[in-house]
Design goal:
This protein has 362 residues and is of the alpha+beta class. The chain has two domains: 125 residues, Creatinase/prolidase N-terminal domain (Creatine Amidinohydrolase, Chain A, domain 1); 231 residues, Creatinase/methionine aminopeptidase superfamily (Creatine Amidinohydrolase, Alpha-Beta Complex). Helices cover 32% and strands 26% of the residues. The protein is built from ten helices and 18 strands. Helix 6 packs across helix 7 and helix 9 packs antiparallel against helix 10. It is globular. The model has no long low-confidence stretch (mean pLDDT 97).
């Protein structure tokens, strides 16, 4: 069975389970998943691309306009994968889905007229990676780690957050990685905002850099912090505490465990380190794949952790954060975005020790 056959078999299995006949994939992430990494977007920030896929009982169609068809056929080589191109002039309203799915019970990876919304189920398909996707994730993690290190090492007091964001984007993009999330905060803004869009504020002493980098459709996430001068004792205490929460989440990321139980382990670690309510201020992460998080871990979640999945946990305590992307293999967890030589905090959880990234002191 080829890699593409594996994806198609999963789609047919989902349709049989849901008692449907056809599946429409419109999201950029779903398109990349089903085509082994092809890009349907032009605007990198869009959720739905310029092409969609329709899988029926007998055919599999690629629906796009005449602007994108040539690229998808010649460069992405999707006709060679067996996708049947349905090309609509850019100036006409597309009706290919209605025509091709006429009389069929239709599901979709999001809201679509007359279709059953299967976004929940499709996200879980995307999160269950094949061996080849795991290898690509490993390569992507290395590229993101390199980009982050080079950017952080170039940060200097006096630079604006825009400048720092530019450094991070440059290092990512030059490696063929799209910085689809590029968050920068300096000094008091690190303490004020969990999702700090960069501004013109100039760095004095403390900076946080957050990257979600995309290549082959997959997305790796990581955060690093740098402090110029001696780290204040209270900030060091928080950094050690958030590393302990991260270790607890990683220790609970084990095949057969539910996300709800992993989340509970993180909650307990927050309380044990003296910050019982910080988990309420931001989500804690979850499975990664073709979205930065395919779905978010929540209290009581019954989703089961499986071998072959990637996870990006991101616990935070006001003023600090810990985030890497890890791959759960047959031999345990592998940190995909580790940076060689980066200072670490050694934290114990579940009978094992975890080296989590510390704040870099310059």
């Amino acid at each position: 069975m080829t890699k593409l056959d594996t994806k198609l078999a999963r789609i047919q299995g989902l349709l049989a389970e849901q008692q449907l006949d056809a599946l429409l994939l419109q999201r950029v992430s779903s398109f990349a998943w089903a085509t082994l990494g092809a890009a349907s977007y032009v605007n990198t920030a869009t959720t739905t691309g310029e092409a969609s896929l329709l899988v029926t009982p007998t055919d599999r169609h690629l629906i796009t306009n005449n602007i994108e068809a040539a690229r998808l056929e010649r460069e992405s080589r999707l006709a060679e994968q067996g996708w049947q191109f349905e090309v609509v002039p850019w100036y006409e309203t597309p009706d290919a889905v209605a025509r091709l799915a006429s009389g069929l019970r239709l599901g979709a990876d999001g809201p679509f007229p007359g279709a059953v919304d299967l976004s929940h189920q499709v996200a879980r398909m995307r999160a269950n990676l094949t061996r080849e996707e795991g290898e690509r994730f490993r390569m992507l993690g290395g590229l993101c780690a390199e980009a982050m290190e080079r950017a952080v090492r170039a940060v200097r007091p006096g630079q604006t957050e825009y400048k720092i964001a530019g450094l991070l984007a440059r290092e990512a993009e030059r490696r063929g990685v799209q910085a689809i999330v590029n968050l920068i905060a300096t000094d008091q803004r690190v303490f004020a905002f969990r999702h700090p869009l960069p501004t013109g504020k100039r760095l004095e002493r403390y900076a946080m850099l957050v990257l979600c980098g995309r290549r082959w459709g997959l997305v790796c996430s990581l955060t690093r912090l740098v402090h110029f001068g001696r780290l204040p004792d209270e900030l060091r205490r928080k950094a050690e505490a958030v590393a302990q929460v991260d270790a607890a989440l990683l220790a609970a990321t084990w095949p057969g465990q539910t996300l709800g139980r992993a989340f509970a382990a993180g909650q307990a670690a927050y309380a044990e380190t003296g910050f019982p309510d910080e988990w309420r201020l931001h989500h804690q992460g979850g499975p990664a794949g073709y979205e930065p998080r395919e779905y978010i871990a929540t209290p009581g979640s019954e989703d089961v952790i499986q071998t072959g999945q990637a996870y990006a946990w991101n616990p935070s305590i006001t003023g600090t954060k810990s985030e890497d992307t890890v791959l759960l293999g047959t031999k345990g967890l592998e940190v995909l975005t580790a940076i060689d030589g980066w200072p670490v905090v050694h934290s114990s959880a579940g009978g094992a020790e975890y080296a989590r990234p510390a704040i870099l002191e310059v």
